[in-house]
Each structure stands twice: as structure tokens, then as C-alpha cells.
Hints:
It comes from Rubus argutus. It is an enzyme of class 1 (oxidoreductase). One of its GO terms (molecular function) is inositol oxygenase activity. This protein is mainly α. A 3-stranded antiparallel β-sheet has the order 1-2-3. Strands 4-5 form a two-stranded antiparallel ribbon. The chain starts with 9 loop residues before the first strand and ends with a strand. A hairpin with a 4-residue loop joins strand 2 and strand 3. Mean pLDDT is 81; it is low at 1-66. The chain has helices at 33-38, 75-88, 91-101, 111-117, 133-147, 152-160, 210-213, 235-245, 252-260, 264-267, 278-296, 305-319, and strands at residues 10-12, 21-25, 30-32, 108-109, 324-325. The protein is globular.
Amino acid sequence: MTILTEKPEVVAKEQDQNATCDLVLDGGFVVPKHIANNDGCVKPEVLVSNDEFIAPEINAFGQTFRDYNAESERQKGVEEFYRLNHIHQTYDFVKKMREEYRKLNRVEMSIWECCELLNEVVDDSDPDLDEPQIEHLLQTAEAIRKDYPEEDWLHLTALIHDLGKVLLLPSFGGLPQWAVVGDTHPVGCPFDGSIVHHKYFKDNPDYNNPEYNSTKYGIYTHGIGLENVLMSWGHDDYMYLVAKENETTLPQAGLFIIRYHSFYPLHKCGEYKHLMNKEDEENLKWLKIFNKYDLYSKSKVRIDVEKVKPYYLSLIAKYFPAKLRW
């Protein structure tokens, strides 16, 4: 497996004056200018080729993606989720959860078995989707596979990126939603204003702790590297621990995507870059590519699981042991 030494870049594409699209990601994923800036919708008619991934214009509830202010049947529940998340995700809580779950002593099973468990999970923090999570995993993986057919590690990363949501199930501890899903952010330093529903941090015990808030670095230093920064606890960090401790052969870019794909204050808003090192900067390029598919592939379009299953089983065998400790 070869990873390009030159990382993917967002490249400009010339358009006529009436065109709505001015950016194209490597692999052909077209991002209209207003979408690149605002996380909105992508119109199918502006795609370069019919063979490329077609992103839906709206989410499953008729709203633009990641619109936390739109009125929809899920918005009140989503806001209540973030209220609880922001109150309870403290530095001490995160340390405790990492120490407990890195033991990986709860379950032993394969990657695919874990994928099937996600049929029982719905993410209360997601304003765009209410389907079982395995649908989203396959939607994302198949969308990336269309545009990056040679990067099989990226297909598998897409398939497994949300497997940590099994933390919601009883055999994995039955954690509350606020401790499993939702956007992530660093702890041990100030809560940036770009974080969704930031107002609820005022009730977090860390909010007024001078050790964490006297400078923008908190307990960290400039360029310390995200590997050395504690993130709010959830499925991202848990799946990263599972993959790393079970000695996956996925490249570092894959592990970075798994661990930080919910870190929207960084990859959407550009905050917390002062904590990154050079390796983080390179891996972030892959994460930004991945995120467009992770976000815009959420739809009501169904994937034929049995048809694609053999391909993903072959990737699992390539990059993971047959059984993993969880």
C-alpha cells in the first residue's frame, strides 16, 4: 500500500460567470464556493462527471447540513444534547474515561461484527440523520471509493470511523449520548467560541479554572501536537484507542481521521491550530478531504450491504487482526 508523499490539496477550478462551483477537491468532489465557506448544499448539476459522488442538497429533514439553528423535529433534542455535553465534559472526566477504556477488556469481536452492532445505534447529536449508523458508514465509504478508488485505506477508514458509537450499548458500558457522540474539542484549555452551543460551557467546572484559561494554551504549549492534547471523550478517541492498541496497519492519516473527524472547531473553523505540529498539519489535509464525504453523504439512499460486504471484509483482513479487543 502506497501513500502519496504529496498530500491532497484543494485546487481552484475555472468557471464561467454563471457557474456556482469554484472549488474542486482532489478525486473530483465539487464544492461550490458558498458551500466551502458555509457548509451548505452541493447541487448535482455542477458535478464534473456523472461517475463522481453526488452530494444531496439537503439532509434527511429538509434542512441544509449542520444547521443548528434551523427549526426541525430534531433540533430541540440536539441542543439539549450539547447542553449536557458541555456541562459534563471536563478535563478530569476525560482522563478518567481514557484510563478506563484503554484497558480494552469489555468485548472481543471482529470489525464487521462491530459494524453490524451499529444497527442498534442512532446518534442524538446529529441534526442531519436519524438512520442506523451502519447506513452512514457505508454511504461515506462508498462515496469516497468512487472518487479515490486506489486509496483502499481511506475506504476502510470511512467504514470504521464511527464504530466507537457502540459505547452507547450495554456491553460497552452503556454511556450516555453526551459522552459518546457530537462534536469534540480540547479540554485543559479555553473553550473556543466556534464550538456549537458554546453558551452552555458556563456551567462546566473547567470554565472558570485559571489553570485552563489564563492563556489560549491552557496547560499545553505552542505546537505541542494534538497527540498530546486531551480531547472531549467520545467515539472518536475510543475507536482510535481500539485501532492503535490492536496494532492496525492503517497509515497515520487514517488514525488521525478516526480520532479527529468530529473536531469541527479545527477542520471547519480553523481554531486550535496553535496546538498542532507539522505532522498534524499534513494529516489535516486528508481529514478535510474525508469530512466532505462524511458530511454530505448522509442521505436516505440505501446501500446494498451484501453486495459491498466482500470488498470491505478484504480490507479489514488487510489492515486488522481477525478479532479485536474492545
